[in-house]
Amino acid sequence: MGYNISRYGKALQKDGIAVNRLDKHLKPLVDEERFSLFDQISRFAANEVAPHLLQWERDKQLVPDHLIEQLGEMGIFGLPIPEEYGGQDGEMIDLVLAGLALSYWSPSVAITPGAAVSLGINPLLRFGSADQKAEHLEDLAAGRRMFAFGLSEPGRGSDAANPQVVAEKTDNGYVLRGEKCWSTNAAWASHVVVHALTDPEGRNGHRSTCFIVPRDRAGVAYQEMEGKTVWPLSSTGSIAFDSVEVSEDEILGEVNGGFRVMVTTLNGGRLFVAAIALGSLAFALDKTRQYVQEREQFGGAIGRFQRVQDVVLEMDLALERNLSWLIQLVHRYDQGSLDREQAAKVKIDCSRVASELVQDAMEVCGGVACLDEFGLARHAADLFVTRVGEGSNKALMSQISRSLLPEIADQLQ
Predict the structure, then answer these.
(1) How confident is the model over 123-132, as pLDDT tens digits?
(2) Is residue 410 part of a domain?
(3) What is the Cα–Cα distance from 173 to 167, expressed in whole angstroms?
């Protein structure tokens, strides 16, 4: 290509730490203590993740165990857990800030604590019994345990109200049969929150129940899903249940109240996915604005061309606008006033806009953008997951349309 690719292998740096627009746009939106939390995690990611990221990916390995241990020692897994259980007594805003900081470098690193908290710990905090919290929260806060979220199935995705995994009532509890797939953190999971059909004749949304199932229980089989080309460092597993016995004490929430557990959990998960999308957008913005000021063509830096400037500006506008919106909704979530529609909307828009603009950024940067060392290809690929994770954008748009067109909602497909 005529120049040294390593010249463009790092983002903008100042004192060894990434200087990015995310800091500028975020600082006015949160208090000093929370910005300090974000800054601390950003520095950790710049020092402990960024230098090793490319090698981890080329070696086709999952997030290293030592990194998970470090995240546990920093208290990231315990962010929303009360202090009495060894946690930080924080809120969703703290987890979202962690997601922004980590996803700037790697969405698949960010989703490891993100899914562990938003999809694993949060349902236990909201729906768990006192005994269940006492049994699990201290180890979850320290990262010694991890809950995976068992929702998607080989034949079920967006139709979450009708799981194919079945829980049959017995004299001693229930017996689970079926399979879950696309379960994030399956490799490290100590337990799986399993969404299962318990009342086939029940009305929609009231026919399923959630169970906390140890992954090492007899009849539970885990297998990492091979061939995945996105989120390469993240564990994504298939978990099968072959006549697995569970007790009534392992029910999370109420019998036939599993759908409520799932949809409430997904609200927080969608906010975290939106944060991951914006972290990727922030990286692309910084990488592109650095590149276009250094790359010379036709007698000068390519950043002097209006069409190149337009791409950089559009990314900055989208980052500032959507970040402000996301932080506002996260505060509403923490106050208990965020509805499902708003959580879905911000996830849809952040993932869609980031995906489109990162593609534009790659086009501006040209051939170098397809090299793994440059970093944009990683984010472009990983952004696909933000469009389908925690409910695909297309399915969520159909659900939102029902509230916009209430008079013909029963006619909508």
Answers:
(1) 999 999 999 9
(2) no
(3) 9
